[in-house]
Design goal:
The chain has 378 residues and is an alpha+beta fold. It folds into two domains: 226 residues, no CATH class; 133 residues, no CATH class. The protein has a seven-stranded mixed beta sheet with strand order 1-11-10-9-8-2-3, with helices on both faces. A four-stranded antiparallel beta sheet has the order 7-6-13-12, with no helix packed on it. It has a two-stranded antiparallel ribbon with strand order 4-5. Strand 2 and strand 3 form a beta hairpin. Helix 1 crosses helix 6 and helix 9 crosses helix 11. The chain binds iron/sulfur cluster (SF4) (2 copies). The site of one iron/sulfur cluster has 13 residues, from helix 12.
Length: 378
Amino acid sequence: MFNETEHTVFLPHDRLGALLAAIRAGGWQCVGPRVEQGTIVMAPLAEDEDLPRGVQAEQAPGQYRLGTDAKRRHFAWANGPQAIKPLIFAPQETLWRVARDADGRLAFETVMPDAPKLAVIGVRACDLAALALQDAHFLRKGRTDAHYGARRAQLFLVAVQCAVPASTCFCASTGDGPTPTVGYDLALAELDEGFVAVAGSAPGRAVLHALGLAEASPVQIAAAREQGDAAAAAQTRRLPGRDLREALMARLKHPQWDAVAERCLACGNCTAVCPTCFCHTEHDIPALDGASSRHEREWDSCFGETHGHLHGFNVRPDIRTRYRQWLTHKLAGWHDQFGRSGCVGCGRCIAWCPAGIDFTAEVAALTGASGGSGMEER
Ligand code: SF4
Ligand code: SF4
């Protein structure tokens, strides 16, 4: 964001509806944050009034509570349980069907998803980083996932700088936030009177151009920069490094794995809310008459008993080995697969863990790192 080569404009709060209208005029349906069931979820947006204006989200290990923002900003909260992941990597979907004709011949049919043009409003920097990681997995050269790819190609991403990080956030330590820098079509930084806005793509430029906005002033641009720096400095949790591969793989027998297994419920919440987790399982659902079947994919979790089941035995028979798999894959194995860690510091796995297990505190306990890990809340 604040790319010096881009025209930086200012969008007053009362033009936010016009921005959504311009996006819709480009053919995109708008999806964005809304308050539902005591949290902020991604849902269809009919108008800017649907956004959670004046709302804050207080987060801590095992806790998520909505509060109020006296400044009545639209994005004064860090994140909800969902990122972009469910919008393009569907929690459950049919990949193909097969039917048997009267002569017993099988006919296979690929089932492609509806993939409307979708504008996602309020994407955070950590969400963009997570999307890049999911792209690296699902759009690998020669092994592109058609279902993911179809939805991904239709996205228009409106990113928002995080000015009010949650206590669970640690994106500054992973290098993924809190200010969006790449991967967006439009990026916004909300000030009290409106948004500093910049485009990151040709479609984004066209939308901003249609609004005929005035240039942002140097004071507004500086204020946006400063609040991004302040948001990074306000984060109290952190990881002790961006490459923990050696440190973790040298500690596979550390007693902390037993300690965390005593608390972990193996519920899989952390993997469901994690924007980078991509494990899934596939199975067939035959019709009762045996004439057809459909092949389904659904999210899976390394905390589930069946995830580690191989023919005749289970490679991860207990919670200790499953938690170790989750954390060492995320922070060690991803370096081999994708050249970086699989954690973008969003903190969702901390807030949405019913046992209040703190990812950063576990890493600190395992590696002997000190400070900045939010241990005081354990
Ligand atoms: S491991 Fe936790 S903090 Fe890291 S990206 Fe996943 S949910 Fe977010
Ligand atoms: S770490 Fe927490 S969210 Fe993850 S499986 Fe264990 S209890 Fe569930």
